[in-house]
Design goal:
Blueprint (H helix, E strand, L loop, with lengths): L2 E3 L3 H21 L13 E6 L7 E6 L4 E5 L2 E6 L24 H14 L14 E3 L3 E2 L2 E2 L2 E7 L11 E8 L5 E6 L17 E4 L10 E4 L2 H22 L18 E5 L2 E7 L5 E5 L2 E6 L5 E2 L3 E2 L13 H14 L14 E3 L2 E3 L2 E3 L1 E7 L6 E8 L4 E7 L24 E2 L2
Length: 417
């Protein structure tokens, strides 16, 4: 258990000042295209961790480069040209280019990065064979990126926690476009902070990566809320026709990953089943579903392209109709949600002789506004694998949450980025 600080401006500034030399050193070691030294003047936004047990925070630079500092080191880096961090499939053509290095050379660059950062291959299990994703292809086009990932021994390879180090190597320039560390072997002492902010409470047992402030609720309320919404989850699954055993009970829930709290005074929940499927619950309803074999679960995982090869057994029109039909079965009006409008569609695409058999559909507000909804469809099985209804952009669908006969008792608050 840890305590939570009230993140005052003074404390946030002190943490940022302490972190910046580490960010600058990281950028220098990897020869990133960022003016040196990296200074406060280059910071667009900083998200300071309120945890008392270690110093941390996210640094967002004005040029689009992002760093996460935690446990005494930079543990995550993403450049604005990171293909494997891309969330919008429509931007894929922006990354087409020419492959100028071999897989062997990319692997050597990855080993050099480990050394430059002051680690050894053995520390990161990089003395074992890695998982390598070769440059994705779409017809005659290629995205010149290698993804090199080492997995901890004796862990499930598809779990994000199993990764020791994950690297994206630009096959045109040899530059690193993304790096993430997930092993305690790389932990270092925290920088010293002379500012001591007030303590506002004990830390929550769980964390939620949603980028919004959450007020944790009492354990009694959290458990009662789960029991209350499980019938709605079961009804959602039944109407949508997802391949999940019914009814869903508490025995099916991965309680270690269950999250319940208040966002803008609204009770919300994130429910993972033991089979890996995930549900988001907001404003009295299920707002998102991700199957255990969805290609991407935001904030959690992204699969390997080669695991999703198959045949294209449906058209974009059929995929769009499938999503609209399921939305209708769930009790929504496609017109009210503006899903009767044409979506942006990223169709299945070629990777050499193989086909990445997934459709990604996005309905978006005009002028590149907020997403109204998004979906992932398996083109081989013709089944929906993910559906997200943006409850913030569609406030007309809000419903009353279940009434819980248990004390809500907000225990403390924290910021989860």
């Amino acid at each position: 258990m840890f305590e939570l600080f009230q993140v005052t401006a003074e404390y946030s500034n002190a943490v940022l000042l302490a972190i910046m030399p580490h960010v600058s050193d990281f950028a220098k070691r990897l020869d990133l295209p960022i003016p040196q030294p990296v200074t406060i003047a280059q910071v667009q936004r900083f998200g300071c961790s309120p945890r008392s047990d270690h110093i941390g925070g996210g640094v967002f630079l004005t040029n689009g480069h992002r760093f996460s500092f935690d446990r005494g080191r930079v543990m995550l880096y993403r450049s604005p040209r990171s293909y494997f961090s891309l969330q919008d499939p429509d931007r894929i053509p922006e990354f087409y280019g020419t492959v100028k290095i071999t897989k062997k050379q990319a692997l050597q660059i990855a080993h050099e990065v480990i050394k430059k950062l002051g680690y050894t291959d053995a520390m990161l299990h990089a003395d074992r064979p890695p998982e390598i994703t070769e440059p994705p292809r779409s017809g005659k086009n290629v995205v010149p990126r290698f993804r090199i990932r080492w997995v901890k021994p004796d862990e499930r390879p598809r779990e994000s926690s199993a990764t020791s180090i994950d690297l994206e190597v630009d096959a045109s320039t040899g530059q690193i476009q993304m790096m993430s560390l997930h092993t305690t072997n790389t932990w270092r002492p925290d920088p010293k902070i002379d500012v001591h902010p007030p303590v506002i409470g004990k830390g929550p047992q769980t964390t939620y990566r949603g980028g919004r402030k959450i007020l944790p609720v009492s354990a009694a309320y959290s458990n009662a809320f789960l029991v209350a919404i499980l019938p709605q989850l079961s009804d959602y699954i039944k109407k949508a026709g997802f391949s999940v055993r019914l009814p869903v009970t508490t025995n099916d829930v991965d309680m270690a990953r269950y999250i319940c709290g208040l966002v803008d005074s609204d009770p919300m929940a994130v429910v993972y089943l033991k089979n890996g499927a995930r549900f988001n619950y907001h404003h009295g309803q299920v707002t998102a579903f991700y199957a255990d074999d969805a290609y991407r679960i935001p904030g959690d995982k992204q699969g390997r392209v080669e695991d999703f090869y198959g045949k294209d057994n449906m058209s974009a029109k059929e995929a769009t109709s499938l999503v609209r039909e399921i939305v209708k079965r769930l009790g929504y009006s496609a017109k009210l949600l503006h899903l009767d409008e044409p979506p942006q569609v990223a169709p299945p695409r070629k990777y050499g002789t193989n086909l990445f058999a997934r459709y990604f559909l996005i309905w978006q507000e005009p002028n590149q506004g907020a997403f109204r909804a998004s979906a992932e469809v398996d083109a081989t099985t013709k089944r929906l694998k993910a559906l997200y209804i943006n409850h913030r952009a569609n406030t007309n669908i809000w419903r009353a949450p279940p009434q819980i006969d248990a004390p809500m008792t907000v225990e403390n608050d924290y910021w989860a980025d």
